[in-house]
Amino acid sequence: MKKITLTLLFALVLPVVALADEGMWIPMLLGRNEAAMQKAGMRITAKDIYDINNACLKDAVILFNQGCTGEFVSDQGLFLTNHHCGYYYITSNSTVEHDYLTHGFWAMSREQEIPCKGLTATRLVRMEDVTRQVLQGIDDNTSEQDRERIIKQHIAVITGDAVEGTHYKAVIKPFYYGNQYFMYVNEVFTDVRLVGAPPSNIGKFGGDTDNWMWPRHTGDFSMFRVYVGKDGKPADYSKHNVPYKPLKHLTISLKGVDEGDFTFVFGYPGTTQRYVPHQQMELQALQENPIRIALRDIRLNHYKAAMEQSPAQRLKYASKVASIANGWKKWQGETLGIQRLNGVDQKKAQEKTFQQWADNRPEYRKVLADLDENYRALSPIELKWVYFSEAVMASDIMARARRFNQMAQNIGDDIKAREDAEKFLADNEKFFADFDLHSPVDRAIFVETFLYMWQQGYAPYLDAKGKGEAAIRKHLEGVYDKSMLTNPKEMDKFLKGYKAKDYEKIVKDPAVDLFIVAHAYTYRPEDEFTFDLCRRNIGKLMRTYVRGMMQQYPDSNFFPDANLTLRVAYGHVQGFRPKDAVYYTPYSTLDGIMEKENPDIYDYVVEPRLKELYNTKDYGRYANLRGEMPVAFIATNHTTGGNSGSPVLNADGQLVGINFDRCWEGTMSDLLFDPAYCRNISLDIRYCLFIIDKFAGARHLVDEMTIVE
Ligand code: ARG
Ligand code: GLU
Question: 683, 588 in Cβ contact below 8 A?
Answer without folding.
Answer: no
